[in-house]
């Protein structure tokens, strides 16, 4: 069973109103959706998740699960399962006992508990580890035990708070893939907190980008990447981030992969001289650091050239670069909000 989660004008303040951890958030998930809360440290992701779980009471606003307001209801009856970054397993209990623990706490019969634990373990591919203790497991396996333990209670909603952050980079990538496939099989609505944009882009049906307790943008990964709502989203997402060049009260934005040697850009394009300062080779791409001079003010920018663009470039030289006009985005220089296009001299190439 899967249900949708909604929060309406949710606020959570601490210290007598001095800290606005969550500052008026409206989010509504679809049933079975995988929604990622993404944002820098301290932006309020964990507080929002804990408020949905019922571990915190909102200062204002409503939390709805399956269409009903659950404010004031304890976590247990909300039918949500939460897995934290620091999922503590009981070190002296076996994997089986760890997974069965929440069922035992609900006084479920042993005969009923065992098949449930086995089902969850099988689903996560750890059924051969049921008799081990946590210390005899790898980090990834422990992670899966924590997930299995969350799963046995038939949650209607999964709330996951950076559950992969204890794993090394390589394991994270495979665990991410596993988590996604597992969620697709179960179809349980999932809200997933991370500050890692690669994780967010890879996992989310939609991403809510948060900053200072507010949602800056909620959209499909492609949408937040290609059409950021403001300069915060434009620069938080993307590595290297979007280039922003001031021009007449407007910031002209373009992604590093769209700033390319002019001879490789076809169609209508904006052109600029690019003073190259430094070139880095990263995973087959060239990251070219330099200064663009076309828009009035000299501004530092980064270009990202894939190996398929073998144009020779050297530090110290000045090369004409171009950006396809349909790749350029505009933001208000004061508010940082997305605005309509301004006139830039463009050429056909
Ligand atoms: P991280 O990625 O570092 O975990 P986060 O986005 O999850 O960060 P929260 O943990 O939700 O951020 O914290 C949001 C803000 O609320 C922070 O400024 C934090 O200091 C503050 N905060 C959180 N819990 C409390 C509390 N119990 N008392 C006072 N302030 C708190």
SSE map:
Blueprint: E1 5-14, E2 19-28, E3 34-38, H1 45-53, E4 60-65, E5 68-69, E6 80-83, H2 95-105, H3 110-123, H4 139-151, E7 157-161, H5 169-186, E8 189-194, H6 197-203, E9 206-211, E10 214-219, H7 221-226, H8 231-236, E11 243-247, E12 250-254, E13 260-261, E14 268-282, E15 285-292, E16 299-305, E17 318-324, E18 329-332, E19 338-339, E20 346-348
Parallel strand pairs: 3-8, 3-9, 6-7, 7-8
Antiparallel strand pairs: 1-2, 1-4, 4-5, 9-10, 11-12, 12-18, 13-17, 14-15, 14-17, 14-20, 15-16, 18-19
Helix pairs in contact: 2-3, 2-4, 3-4
The protein binds adenosine-5'-triphosphate.
CATH class of the largest domain: Alpha Beta
Structural class of the secondary structure composition?
A: alpha+beta
Q: Would you identify the CATH H-level superfamily of the largest domain?
A: P-loop containing nucleotide triphosphate hydrolases
H-E order: EEEHEEEHHHEHEHEEHHEEEEEEEEEE
Low-confidence stretches: none
Tell me which CATH architecture of the largest domain applies here: 3-Layer(aba) Sandwich
Number of helices: 8
Helix content: 10-25%
N-end to C-end Cα span? 55 Å
Tally of strands: 20
Number of domains: 2
Largest sheet: 6 strands, mixed
- In spatial order, strands of the major sheet run 6-7-8-3-9-10
Question: What do these coordinates show?
Answer:
The chain is an alpha+beta fold and 349 residues long. It folds into two domains: 3-226, P-loop containing nucleotide triphosphate hydrolases (Rossmann fold, 3-Layer(aba) Sandwich), CATH 3.40.50; 241-348, Nucleic acid-binding proteins (OB fold (Dihydrolipoamide Acetyltransferase, E2P), Beta Barrel). It has eight helices and 20 strands. The longest helix has 18 residues, at 169-186.
